[in-house]
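DATA SHEET
Item: assembly model
Revision: 1
Owner: S.N.
Input lines:
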Amino acid sequence: MPLVKKYLFPAPVLLDYMTRVLAAAGVSLEDAAIAADVLLSADMRGVASHGIIRLFPYYSRRLRDGLINPRPQPVVLNETPSSLALDGDNGLGHPTGYRAMKRCIAKAGESGAAVVTVRGSNHYGIAGYYAMQALPHDMIGLSFTNASSLVAPTYGRTPILGTNPIAVAAPAGAERPYVLDMATSIVPIGKVTVYERAGLEIPYGWGVDSQGRVTTDPREVFYGGALLPLGGTAEMRGYKGYGLALLVEILAGVLAGSAFGRTVDPDAHTKVSNIGHCFAAIRVDAFRPLDDFKGDMDAMIRELKDAPKATGQERIYIPGEKEFEKTERSLSEGVPILAEVVNHLVRDGEEAGVPFDLEPVGVKEEVEV
Amino acid sequence: MPLVKKYLFPAPVLLDYMTRVLAAAGVSLEDAAIAADVLLSADMRGVASHGIIRLFPYYSRRLRDGLINPRPQPVVLNETPSSLALDGDNGLGHPTGYRAMKRCIAKAGESGAAVVTVRGSNHYGIAGYYAMQALPHDMIGLSFTNASSLVAPTYGRTPILGTNPIAVAAPAGAERPYVLDMATSIVPIGKVTVYERAGLEIPYGWGVDSQGRVTTDPREVFYGGALLPLGGTAEMRGYKGYGLALLVEILAGVLAGSAFGRTVDPDAHTKVSNIGHCFAAIRVDAFRPLDDFKGDMDAMIRELKDAPKATGQERIYIPGEKEFEKTERSLSEGVPILAEVVNHLVRDGEEAGVPFDLEPVGVKEEVEV
């Protein structure tokens, strides 16, 4: 994989810039700041595909084109002591998701566990952000969203399901929390792009061509093909990944009453997306004393990390661990943004009247993803 | 894969036999009948690895050896309107799980959504059985359990996590319900045994040898090696499967306060297992009108089934669909039990004083699994 140039920017400066761009597109300062924080969090955690790269194409431009409502008035559709169904009124997914999860946590605080759905929303960035909101409340948080069709069901050949992520966060004691944030496809489509640009073949099983045959040519996945769900081929039990992708579609799409399947975001440039989300929160001390839980989480984490390593490997990671380390590095040395993305930001910022005139604090060369 | 002989038995006859065996081991008739129904359900659904094959080694023998409590008195540890933590008092996992899910459904009926954990339990058979209990109540049901260590974490080489299943059932309208019931490993260990007996290599990625290297030799997985989580290698994103296996360990092990990691059932022949479960139920009409949900479930299912097929494929399946068809076949032609398993039942039944003198209604030759 070839090296690419990345500029390093201080986190607060990026946060401020993104907030200004969204506010300039009509969003309230409060909502803009929440959305900017979710996007920044992605870049800091090393999930650049979901960060500032999306600021203009996914959000600013859709706001300006009238496809996202800059001043939504979310509506309660149904409510019980441990459930809540919301309509996001076509607002940005990030503030909508953030507030939905906040209400989910409040409900779990009262009743022990709660589930909240949202329909009429938009791309909300990294699913893990919302799951992690539960951590300071000593709860387990879950977050699901559906997304544009990119993944073929097992034995199919056309993309029907989204990369539909599952995110779960659980607190620990002395150890860092467990934070799983995974697409239910093997890789996101952006990873296939990276291989294409590098002139490399993709590993066998990541995707299929237009006839549903596994292909190692990234272009065949793009043009008429599809991504495969986690697992890949049927022999490797890709139908489990397909089952999980469909589970997310049921929770975030069908249960929420939003779009589902191929009707999700069929054409990002001309239609309202009606994406759906689902959140859940589980209050740990409704089940057992918090200190006992945290002590056992630490013991479980240490058992895994201290276990014998495979030949050639030096570490066993806990889900979320790499992302915590990247966040710390982003805070100390600056948040890495691809030089190519910076070029786009300069062009798009000028067009939107919010020039990207930020000064990098450093530069480095790294493998792209 | 070579053909193997299977005898066909009427379902009620198998149910009666298993109930008698468990009752003879000291279990109440009511509990014995529940456990027998879960085991029978596995054989009927085509999950023979979790069916009658386990009757003696997993249950009857452990009951007789004093490792499972035949007359448990489950205890409520903590309770809120939408949560419940139980101690199963070391009873059979099936009646314990069945009743825990029943209470979970009752709680979700009152409050909209509920989560129930169980510690101090035993192997509960197929996870999907409990998730499916939610279906007649028009709820989405979820069921998780931890299990003996068989799966290595990504970059590890020793088994630490169980094959920790995730099961979810969601009702539909005219279509059959969605029923996902998946181990978070690629395959169960029994599948590796089948390949070993057939003298075949296992596909690359299913398991590792004692040094953590991927191996295609089933014996190397058994003797000092481990299964790999869904996805397989890191390149194929096996760390997502590992993350899911750990999620189940957190919900069913750490949150429940049961054993977790390598302490789960370290030696089935001499120790109490202290397995844990976690159940959840979500009342659909707490979120949106039931008919709307079911209509959209049907539409989603049809969209998938009607989608273009990959070259050489004729059907796209919905999770659970194959198992419903196998259940129907089991009801019409008899439940298939491996001839080899029948031999074991005859031997073990005699030893236990409950002779396996059932008359098969047919015989057939099939691929083993």
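QC remark: Chain A is about 40% helix and 20% strand.
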